[in-house]
Amino acid sequence: MADAASTTRRAVLSAALAAPLSASLAQAAPGRNPDAELMRLGREWRAAQDRAKSAPDGTGEAAYAALCAEAARLEFAIQAIPARTVGGLAVKAAIARQYAPERDDDGPSLDEMLTALVDDVLRLAATA
C-alpha cells in the first residue's frame, strides 16, 4: 500500500500531466517571448553539441574537452532558468533526452535536469 506522501505526489503529478500546457500559459507583453533567453541558449547548446559531435578524428583531447565544456556550460545555464512556455520546456527536455541513455560527467545528470524540468511543469500547471 502506498504511503500518504507517495499518494499525494502521485496526485500532484497526475494533475500536472492532465493540465493542458499551451502557449497561453505564458503571461508576457505582446510580441515578447518570455522564454527568449532560454530558447537562445538552447540554440547555442545545439550548435555547441553539433561542433562537438562533428569534431574531426584528429581533434586533440584538449580541444575536444573544450567543445564539451562549452556545451556543459550552456546546459547548466539552461538548467538554472525556469521555463515559462512549452517551448522553454522543450529546450530542457532536449537536454534531458540526450542524457537518457547514459550520464555524461561534464554536464548535469539526468536526475538534475529532470528535477528542473518537473519543477517547471508543476509551476506552469499551477498557473493554468
Q: What are its keywords?
A:
single chain; 128 residues; mainly alpha; disordered N terminus; signal
Q: How would you describe this structure to a colleague?
A:
Helix content is 66%, strand content 0%. The longest helix is centred in the middle third of the chain and has 20 residues, at 61-80. It has one domain (4-126). The two termini are 32 Å apart. Residues 1-28 have low confidence and may be disordered. α2 runs antiparallel to α3 and α4 runs antiparallel to α5. The chain contains five helices and no strands. By secondary structure, it is mostly helical. The chain is elongated.
How many strand units?
A: 0
Largest sheet: none
Using the alpha-carbon principal axes, give the shape. Answer: elongated
The structural class is mainly alpha
Query: What is the multimeric organization of the chains shown?
Result: single chain
Number of helices: 5
- Mean pLDDT over the full residue set: 76
Work out the strand percent: under 5%
For the CA atoms, what is the radius of gyration? 17 Å
Low-confidence stretches are 1-28
The secondary-structure element order is: HHHHH
Distance between the termini: 32 Å
Whole-number count of domains: 1
Helix content: 55-70%
Detail the topology: elements first, then pairings.
Layout: H1 4-18, H2 36-53, H3 61-80, H4 86-99, H5 110-126
Helix pairs in contact: 1-5, 2-3, 2-4, 4-5
